[in-house]
Task: structure prediction
Amino acid sequence: MSHATFTKYINLADARLGSQAVFVTDDWFAAVDRMLQPQAPVWKDDVYDDNGKWMDGWESRRKRFEGYDYAIIRLGVPGVIKGVNIDTAFFTGNFPPSASLQACFCPEGDPHDTTEWTELLSAVSLNGDSQHLHAIDHAAPWTHIRLNIYPDGGIARLKIYGIPYLDWSSIDANQEIDLAAAINGGRSLACSNEHYGTMSNILNPGRGINMGDGWETARRRTPGNDWVIIALGHPGEISRVLVDTLHFKGNYPDSCSIQAAYVKGGTDEQIETQSLFWKELLPAQKLAMHQEHQFEQQLKPLGTITHIRLNIFPDGGISRIRLFGKPSQ
Result:
């Protein structure tokens, strides 16, 4: 299940969103917050600290009494959870035999002794040095998750895929907001190619940390151009667009354009065909290396939209795209 459909959603447990552990029973061998880092886990030969072998993840001691270990994670942004990946990379003789996942909704603070937890994933078997992907079917939003491991051991990475939850009714109708931002529910749905960097990166918070933290296509050797389709977190009117080519110097696109539409019905998979006929929001604009490009006067007044298609000519990489506008009521 390495290509599970839920992995196209944002990782709500990503430390870059502000996700962090608020409680852990034991992280003697490896600090629990390592489990939430966005980078792929690594192995370091012959690296030890005062407590033992250095491991890239969360690792508890060998339990010598009854019970089990668990960690409580406050998600950087509340969300509806679509799936989970429990990754035991490089944990071979020290992985937990099984694990389960619970969640709670505590918008005013962290959970306490009387908090009610809802089971999202009943205990599943784990293997060493493996990824374990499980879909989750639950419509409610959550602020915290609790990862239980039975009885002890190490988890390299925990990824909680889902859709950020915002109470749009509480947002000022006159407030300009990045409607495409991942933390506001924006999603990259499809693209022509993502050979070097994934399409979801361009909606991440902040500026890219390096060239790998963007979307980059392979060199195009046939006619045409590359593209990515993005669903906004909420319908709205776009007043300003930012395209950032930070870190892309010898491989930035020559130019870009944006098409947009208000999409009613259909599935994510049908979007590609529909996008061929969308109207132009931003006519073709020249791009330059390693910088932010702001477009405001160049935008055409299309009214309320739900989706955009960013076209890059002919290929290359961008770090971020921002679509600022006012959410429609």
